[in-house]
Specification:
8 strands; lyase; ACMSD; Metal_Hydrolase; Amidohydro-rel; Amidohydrolase
């Protein structure tokens, strides 16, 4: 990991990157200022944002899940020279990331305004609608490599369904994004209407880490340190994978594709092994499951690569990739964040050309139908 990328790309690396034509499944654009949203946000909610701001499902006041030493979770060299916050300048993003790494497609993941964690569901829906429109106007329409997601808050599922239908009519969004930190675990039936609509529309369901669920992010309670907070992303994703599988979501929606984003993948094998073991002991409790949990994981779920867990020995990372399944992994950089994964160095274990093509391009091409 690095928070400054200070070595220029070598000619040989440029050639390799060009051959790969990377599909980056996790790029974070940011609004330059709240006023960017005004043309997409009704006057009522503009005034609400100005007077009241966000009211989030979190016990913290005036703090965020990232430290002051890493403002906006960003690389120090990602602050645009033209001003604004990291990820807010398209030309700078092109120069620093899209062009040198020959990114064929980049999937936008918006985190501004903690849109999934608003207590006021109507305000949250208005912000989601504005940001969905802003993604097209400020990014996808200005650079066809960048692809937008439909952001919806699943705790207001009627509002979420309306937003999905509105955006889907445009044919310009490539997935539906929901939060891993909702009011309840993601497998619960209250969220199934969104999964049903995603399956009907044949749009993958993206689940990016972050936000506030109103609950402690770990099973042991609230963490003391920022590095504990960051570690909890893996726990959150693992618990939601377990919930989705054991509640029967992939059995109920067999054509639904689910992508976990920015949760890493080091925890997946052990989670599958444990679910399978419990399934053998308690399968009468979950008769709606027709197969072992690991079989659902290997057919219905995909995982973006960043942050990559890095064992001391490269051969162990190799084993980990094989246990997860090379067809399940989608490359992601997390640009412009401080724990960004540089495509040149992300995998510290040898991969064949065929394996690199799968992880860096063809797996995502198949999932998102590029």
């Amino acid at each position: 990991m690095s928070d400054v990328i200070d070595r220029p790309m070598l000619d040989l690396e440029t050639a390799a990157a060009t051959r790969l034509k990377i599909i980056d499944c996790d790029i974070h654009p940011s609004i330059h200022a709240h006023s960017d949203l005004n043309e997409f946000l009704p006057k009522r909610w503009q005034q609400h944002l100005k007077e009241y701001g966000s009211h989030l499902r979190t016990p913290y006041i005036g703090t965020t899940p990232y430290p002051r030493s890493s403002p906006l979770i960003a690389r120090r060299d990602a602050w645009p020279p033209t001003g604004g916050v990291p990820g807010s300048d398209l030309d700078f993003m092109r120069k620093q990331h899209l062009d040198p790494f020959d990114v064929e497609f980049g999937i936008l993941q918006v985190l501004d305004l903690f849109i999934f964690s608003q207590q006021n569901l109507e305000f949250g829906a208005a912000i989601q609608r504005a940001i969905n429109d802003w993604q097209l106007a400020f990014w996808a329409h200005r650079d066809p490599r960048l692809k937008a997601s439909i952001l919806v808050g699943q705790d207001g599922s009627d509002l979420g369904l309306a937003e999905i239908d509105r955006c889907a009519k445009t044919g310009e969004y490539i997935q539906i994004n929901v939060s891993p930190r909702a009011n309840e675990p993601l497998g619960r039936r209250r969220y199934w209407p969104i999964y049903e609509r995603a399956q009907e529309l044949d749009l993958p369901l993206g689940i990016h880490v972050g936000g506030y669920g109103g609950h402690a992010p770990t099973g042991g309670g609230w963490p003391s340190y920022y590095c504990e907070e960051h570690q909890s992303n893996a726990h959150t994703v693992a618990s939601n994978l377990t919930s989705l599988v054991l509640e029967g979501v992939p059995e109920r929606f067999p054509k639904l594709k689910i992508v976990f984003i920015e949760g890493g993948f080091g925890w997946i094998p052990a989670t599958m092994w444990r679910m399978d073991q419990h399934f053998e002991r308690f399968r009468s409790e979950v008769p709606h499951l027709k197969r072992k949990p690991s079989e659902y994981v290997k057919e219905h779920f995909w995982f973006t690569t960043q942050p990559i867990d890095e064992p001391d020995e490269a051969k162990h990372l190799r084993q980990l990739i094989e246990w997860v399944g090379i067809d399940r992994l989608l490359f992601s950089s997390d640009y412009p964040h401080w724990d960004y994964d540089d495509a040149r160095y992300a995998f510290k274990t040898p991969l064949t050309d065929a394996e690199r093509r799968k992880i860096f391009n063809s797996n995502a091409r198949a999932v998102y139908k590029f």
